[in-house]
């Protein structure tokens, strides 16, 4: 087994209900990444951040300019992690206000170069493009490294068989999780690596690393 430090994976879930399909998707993605890294003999510590529990703290931060201890802890967990899974329900064809507000209180440079897997849930497949017109641009603006496969789960995807043009949800989860694990696998671990513009891997190299040999 590798003697390197465990990798740290932050998982942000913006689901509002209990139980939540958003949290369910987040858990399945995290477990896939954990399994892929275990196969590569890398240990990973997963921390779940439920934004539902931080809604009031986030609103107060906008009004006062100061985060509560709980919000500060959540922000630190996300910004210091080696990688991030971010999952939101889709409201009005975009990410939820709670999801956007959380990332609004994070410093614009704090996610630079961080590997991110973006995912969303919704009642209908018609909202799946929110991944490309909302979530991916958000993390691109924050200069994160977003894996090629984003995962959207509509109500019919849970237990569905897909169709001739789309993979099933489990296959999409596996592909996206494998892509994130591929970016995390060779990091030093411990969430302590310094990331700046000079250390960001060019996108062509990122894609090359994800291609099967």
From TrEMBL:
Keywords: Flavoprotein, FMN, Oxidoreductase. InterPro entries: CE1759_FMN_reduct, Flavoprotein-like_sf, FMN_Rdtase-like_dom, NAD(P)H-dep_FMN_reductase. Residues 8-158 form the NADPH-dependent FMN reductase-like domain. It comes from the Bacteria. Pfam families: FMN_red (PF03358). GO terms for molecular function: oxidoreductase activity. Gene3D superfamilies: 3.40.50.360. NCBIfam families: LLM_duo_CE1759. This is Oxidoreductase.
């Amino acid at each position: 087994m590798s003697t390197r430090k465990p990798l740290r994976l932050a998982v942000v879930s913006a689901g509002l209900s209990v139980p939540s399909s958003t949290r369910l998707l987040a858990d399945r993605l995290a477990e896939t990444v954990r399994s892929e890294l275990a196969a590569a003999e890398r240990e990973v510590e997963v921390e779940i951040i439920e934004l539902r529990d931080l809604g009031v703290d986030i609103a107060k931060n906008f009004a006062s300019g100061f985060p509560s201890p709980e919000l500060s802890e959540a922000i630190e967990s996300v910004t210091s992690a080696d990688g991030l899974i971010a999952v939101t329900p889709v409201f009005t064809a975009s990410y939820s206000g709670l999801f956007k507000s959380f990332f609004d209180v994070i410093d614009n440079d704090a996610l630079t170069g961080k590997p991110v897997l973006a995912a969303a849930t919704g009642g209908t497949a018609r909202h799946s493009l929110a991944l490309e017109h909302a979530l991916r641009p958000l993390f691109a603006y924050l200069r994160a490294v977003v894996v090629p496969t984003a995962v959207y789960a509509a109500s019919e995807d849970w237990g569905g068989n897909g169709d001739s043009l789309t993979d099933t949800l489990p296959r999409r989860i596996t592909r996206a999780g494998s892509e994130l694990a591929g970016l995390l696998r060779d990091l030093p671990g411990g969430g302590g690596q310094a990331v700046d513009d000079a250390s960001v891997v060019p996108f062509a190299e990122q894609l090359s690393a994800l291609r099967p040999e």
